[in-house]
Design brief:
Length: 131
């Protein structure tokens, strides 16, 4: 029987509603969308799409690692953009985090994001295999 387990870490922003920042299920980790929020003060980082994308991916990495996975194990991401015209700037930072075999990805423009954010990124990954 498979059990789901909530992920928690102090290295990423905490949930601001009735949801988990991530869920471990069987050999998978499912993350909630991560914004460019500094986990130390709960504030959106300044500097627009570039800095927000970088922080969102750092937050995503923290959730994945807390759940027994990593960025290298991500198989699918979804990127939500406030403005699709920011796609190339987001993509430049995104490519710094995903190298050899980048995950499948969808990127869409949305009407609005929490806290007025420019970007939100969620992921599905598999857990690291025991060596």
């Amino acid at each position: 029987m498979f059990m789901k387990k909530a992920i928690s870490t102090k290295n990423s922003p905490q949930a601001i509603g009735p949801y988990s920042i991530g869920i471990e299920f069987d050999k998978f980790v499912f993350t909630s969308g991560q914004l460019g929020i500094n986990p130390d003060d709960g504030m959106l980082v300044s500097g627009g799409i570039i800095n927000e994308t970088r922080q969102a991916l750092v937050n995503l990495q923290a959730v994945l690692e807390s759940g027994g996975s990593s960025l290298e194990n991500v198989i699918k991401t979804t990127v939500f953009l406030r403005d699709i015209n920011d796609f190339s700037k987001m993509n430049g930072i995104y490519s710094e985090f995903f190298h050899e075999i980048p995950p499948a990805r969808s990127a869409v423009q949305v009407a609005a994001l929490p806290k007025g954010a420019a970007v939100e990124i969620e992921a599905i990954a598999f857990k690291k295999m025991n060596e």
